[in-house]
Amino acid sequence: MAKWITIEGREHPLLIHGTYDLEVGDRVTVFPLKGNKISAATAKGLPIEPGARVVVVPHERYPGSQIYRSIFGNDEMAPHIHIGNIGEYQIIFVDEYADFHAEITSNPPLQSQTWNFGDWQSGSLNTSWDANPSHQYRHPGWYNVRLTARNQHLSDTVTWESAVRVEVPPPTSLSASNVGSGRVRVSWTPGIPNESCKVMVRTDMYPPHPNNGTIIYWGQATSLELNLTPGTRYYFRVWGIYEGVFSEGYQSSSLVVRSDIIPPGTYYLDRINDYHIGGGGSSTTVGNMLGHNNNHTLLGDYGWVEASWDSVSSISQIKEVTIAEATGGIRLYKINPNNYIHPSSYSLITGVDNYAISFKEPNIIRIRVTTGGGFSEPTPGAYGNIVWVSALIE
After folding, report:
1. Please, are residues 185 and 236 in contact by the beta-carbon 8 Å criterion?
2. In the predicted model, what is the mean pLDDT of residues 138-146?
3. Model's pTM, two decimal places?
4. If we measure between CA atoms, which residue out of 300, 302, 303, 305 comes closest to residue 287?
5. Domain residues of the chain, as ranges?
6. Distances (CA, A) of 52 to 76, 243, 274
7. CATH of domain 173-256
């Protein structure tokens, strides 16, 4: 009975001792060797003892082949490569490094391992003989990585398809501001190494994509001005471009276009639009929160108020709102109104226990007392002690 060895794990034709080309799954006959002669009894399938040396001859698919002296010990084997996360891929940005690691077993000992990073544009840097190399990718796209391991007699090669995805980084900033008379300035920072940017605008929050919207700019500049319809909210998005490839990520900004310009400064509430006095509150004190003074309101337990700034035409113009509350001393709560725009609901402000606050376009703030003040009150029922509310315009 013949003895067989199945050559496994070969992704390319295998050359044994420069003699025979074998492919994945090929079987070869193994003959025990005595000196330089093959025993006639071998054909009868004599046992091969551990440590014996053998001659490898191709199977009958090559019946005319001569027997060459391809000799190795039967305890020897080709290197075997194991890449734990093969089938997955790394995502990096242009100019970043990808790291590689593989486990290799070999007997006799490994003589060399060669990584090919699939990045022909990197020249000689495309190859590494390190055990755990890193490679810097300077161009966007998908890359296949190949590792070849060799010992004294044999080799093993593993190709890692789509091992690395190199993406174009997004721009690092985008802002939009009113210049006046319906004119808007849009500015952005392309980010390194982007060569240009594409800026889009819409009047709704349609899913972001470089083709979803109206193109307002495509090129190497970093800002522009354009005329838009006053009173309309616009959504701006910018994508980076490098070597003709768009970034996966983007930056976004939005604003309501206005025709007037408010000088920078601090503005205090001008008008009480509506209110409800809760338990322990006093309707005669509601007006105390208007302007800038030291008198405070008594909204009462779960009372609420809606007030506005006559000089502010849109919440989007306000950078910061400060609420001064007089409970055991003046407490200042600073918030960004654009984070709390809810037409019919309130939002609890982080770190503020006793108020829920929201904003409504064009210029209304809503404040509701949510608990019994949240602090130890000197006077029972004295809840919602708001002194003044200011809007910062820059």
Report:
1. no
2. 96
3. 0.53
4. 305
5. 4-75, 79-167, 173-256, 265-393
6. 11, 59, 99
7. 2.60.40.10
Q: Do residues 355 and 371 make contact, with C-beta atoms less than 8 angstroms apart? A: no
Span 182-204, pLDDT tens digits: 899 999 999 999 999 999 999 98
Q: Give the whole-angstrom CA distance, residue 189 versus residue 61.
A: 65
Task: Report the distance separating Cα 64 and Cα 330, nearest Å.
Answer: 101
The alpha helices in the chain, defined as continuous H runs, are none
Torsion of Cα atoms, 242 then 243 then 246 then 247, to 10°? -40
Q: What is the dihedral of CA 246, 252, 257, 261, to 10 degrees?
A: -110
240-250: pLDDT as tens digits? 999 999 998 99
Token pair 């075997």 is found at 80
What lies within 8 Å, CB to CB, of 52 at 6+ separation is 32, 33, 73, 74
Mean of pLDDT values over 44-64: 46
Query: Could you tell me the fold of the domain covering 79-167?
Result: Immunoglobulin-like (2.60.40)
